[in-house]
Amino acid sequence: MEFTYFIGADVSKNELDFSVMQGKRFLFHKEVSNSPTAIKAFIKELTKLPDFDPKQAVFCMEHTGIYTNFLLTILHEKKIAICLEAATQIKNSLGNLRGKSDKVDSLRIAEYAYKNRSELRLWQPKREILQQLAYHSAIRSRLIQVQKTIKTPLKETGLFLSKAQQKAHN
Question: What pTM was computed for the model?
């Protein structure tokens, strides 16, 4: 697929930093809140660019877990191409760089998308059942960890108690 616009997104819990490039030419940077309303407003702003066609745009971002959910959902609904990459993949492809800020990171992600445009792997959401399984598996892992956290000190404490205290302890 041929893309004209490359939008790098630096995703965090509260904000999204976007750098928009047309080809290798940087157009602008914009920071918005990580909320559906703000994301939709940003996409609406993009459509006002001359010659902007959502079908010729690709949003590229690092995988940051649940913080990407709003952006991924909205872009997928609007049928806009998405590239979700591991942070190390982007960092390693750009070499040894200095300086770090959300704005700079979003520009580097956009540049990564442009430089690798012919090899970009577009993201597709997992089937709903697989998303549910992953969610429940993560919850189970957390519960097991909490259980271990609670049981270990209780066992250790029991070693230093008298028989009567151990009986009351259990």
Answer: 0.76
